[in-house]
Predict the 3D structure of the following.
Amino acid sequence: MKSPARQTFPRAYHRMCAWILGFRFVVNGQPDTAEPCLFVSNHTSYLDIIVLGALIDGCFVAKTEVSGWPFFGPLSKLQRTVYVDRKRASAGRQRDSMVERLTDGGRLILFPEGTSSDGNRTLPFRSALFAVASTPGADGKPLKVQPVSLACTHLDGWPLGRNLRWLYSWYGDMDLLSHIWRVAGIGSLTV
């Protein structure tokens, strides 16, 4: 169901979070406004969701476990997240769920790496997730795919090099709460 509140609240929420954290956005190029559309982005942190959620009216594709996380689970459900299981046996069913959302006129935001990294390189794409890009739209035309590249470039106006990307990146076994606390206190990040 596409109610106005269901479409407006998540984007407003992400914008509020970005404002609280002091994020500044620099967008190069024009995001595609077509529906359906698949936005494909690198993934360095849970913060990517705040950034893309503030800039793009779309639904995320996330691992199934996210639906059960405290706080983040209910928010992801509100945003109509498509949950995927990482087991190879369910790849076809997951692709069908993504195609259904796209056919319904949706815009999906996908991190085809399947996990976050330090942001200094792009990890290999998980082909099972990215296979949805070859699916034609409801009108039979090729699905529009919008590439997105996220990078945290400045801290309080000063250039942020490779050696400081860990300030934004969240990956591996990093503790979530301490990372959120650090990001909230370091100053203004330009993404």
